[in-house]
Amino acid sequence: MKALPPSQRIAAPLDADVLQKQKTPIQSLLKPLLDLSETSDYLVAGSVGEFTTHDGIFQIPRFIFMGPGGGGDTMRLGIFATFNGDQPEGAEALVQFLRDLELRPQIARGYHLYIYPVCNPTGFVAQTSHNYSGEDLTKQFWQGSSQPEIYYLEREIGVLQFHGVITLHTQTDLESFTLEINSAILKRALAGPAIQATQRFVSGSVRKAAASSVESWPGSPPVDFLSLGGELNPVPFELQFGIPGYISKYLQAHGTVSALTSILDSYRGLLSVGQNI
After folding, report:
1. CA dist 243 to 137, 202, 235, 253, Å?
2. For the segment 170-216, what is each residue's pLDDT rounded down to a tens digit?
3. Residues 155, 78 contacting (CB under 8 angstroms)
4. Residue 5 belongs to a domain
5. Of 4, 26, 121, 240, which has the fewest Cβ atoms less than 10 A away?
6. Are the CB atoms for 139 and 120 separated by under 8 Å?
7. 3-state secondary structure 63-86
8. Within a domain: residue 4?
């Protein structure tokens, strides 16, 4: 990989105790999951490492949900949120998603889910879109960036070789969920059902949620920013899920959870059909 180690301190992956001890907005957000991981048979909490800034030490949290065996090869998906630090909706939805999975682990049957709810911890704490260096992290991948967040996340993506990566972001000017994906086939198989699953969480008076295989919705990150750049082999599918900013937090979270649940079910079914051909 092209990424260079940042000048800040680099540490090995850390366990959940590091996150539990920090009294920050990130710890407050993730506390339900950190507590749950202490007794869960499926959920492992920790961090991919840490880095320092003039404001202190920061970690990029990672939660691994190891679903029950599915009888075949384990599918690995990476789910990422809060690249824009002032958009906590994706992180909040992932907290709800993991809590739901703990109650219904069969939803993740055959999967290992690697979940990164706060990819921009300095921006999250400061409530700014960019990170502490003033960078838009979605434009930094696979370009030799020295930003510590990019270093860690590129390492995760490269080493774990995900079958697919999913990013969550907030569409501040929309009232309906959106979805973009880099494959016309997967648009039909995954995106269509996922968008349909969100319909009961948006008002019938607003424009219907939409799925796209090529175009970029206003306010979206660059298409395929995690999977392009010639660094990955094989290349995972990439799906971007937009959470509408003009609905309640309850609907944001539960609409996102419903869509993610649909994606897991649809992708498992798609691979099962392919294996039987």
Report:
1. 19, 11, 25, 9
2. 998 888 899 998 788 888 899 999 999 999 898 764 445 555 544 45
3. no
4. no
5. 4
6. no
7. EEEECCCCCCCCEEEEEEECCCCC
8. no
